[in-house]
Amino acid sequence: MLRAAVIGAGHIAKQHLAAIDAAPGVEAVGVCDLSAALAELTAERFGVTAWETDFRRLLADCRPDAVHITTPAATHLAIAKECLEAGSHVFVEKPIATSLEDLERLAAVAESSGRWLVEDHNYLFNDDVQQLLRLHREGRFGDVLHVEVQVDLPLFAPGSRFVDRHAPHPAMREPLGAVSDFLTHLSYLANAFVGPIRSASCQCRRDSPVATGAISEFKALVDAAFGTALLGVSTGGEIDRFRIRVDGSRLSAEVNLFEVGAILTRTRGGPKPLIPIRNMVGRGFSELRNARRSLSRKLSGGPGPYEGLWRLVAEFYARCDRGEAPPVSLDAIREVGRWVDVITHAACDNATVSERQPEAVGP
């Protein structure tokens, strides 16, 4: 059995522990959190025998093969560095670091120690995104022209951690506030279809009646190597949605990652005026099928929208056991880090910003 430990016992840590529990050949051997009560309660809930408030003691006592780091982003560099140096592979929640320089420091430690450093790109491993990636690899989209990734969530609604003055969400200390908590997700999904970022321009609205000065509406228009992308976060509506749409020269596809199923719009044979009608009929049947599948998933008690995380965790340990390459490469993590960096600087400067090259740094 491979031995796994989790550092940080907040909400997302519970999803990591559930994914570890579901993965074959893996055992969770330790949980760590600064709160002793939370660490003990989480360990008890998932049947983990050891818990600690000091991650160094956890590393020494449990000697895990891999550590999942689910603490706030500002702590990732120090914790991940020590875990790598202690000989553990590291699976880090997004964002893996708060700067390109910190990311390069971690990458240098991972490479010198011969350990894996993996960022949680979980939505890439959802069934429906995997379907879009297969269509892309097979050339079914034709030329990918544009990709749009949009998150709609009432982030500043009463009861949200983003507006909790007593225990604010860590992302609220980042330059883009709540947007920073989603930007990595938006970036790796877009990057998978249009490649490395070249430049970005951003527009932000800061008119939330609840969180003064916080970004309530965010858009980033990106010029990438193989197409354009539009990334967005909207906080004012009441409909929860996480949508990715890929537009190609021969096929368009749309997925709501909070639900199940893709909607495809194709080029078709026959009289051109009838093609939109045929696509509308196909869309209707797809919507009905997807509604049934979404209901079935909600009733199943499984991972729900975290299906990609469960699959990524299982793949992480399966590849580790087989001695293969990690499921998310360092090159991919660096590329996504550049997306986040360019977009963040464009938003802060309210101007078009080209890609910045990180300075060479050692561990």
From TrEMBL:
InterPro entries: Gfo/Idh/MocA-like_OxRdtase_N, Gfo/Idh/MocA_oxidoreduct, NAD(P)-bd_dom_sf. Residues 2-118 form the Gfo/Idh/MocA-like oxidoreductase N-terminal domain. Pfam families: GFO_IDH_MocA. Keywords: Oxidoreductase. It comes from the Bacteria. The keyword Oxidoreductase applies. Belongs to the Gfo/Idh/MocA family. This is Putative oxidoreductase YcjS. The lineage of its organism: Bacteria, Pseudomonadati, Planctomycetota, Planctomycetia, Pirellulales.
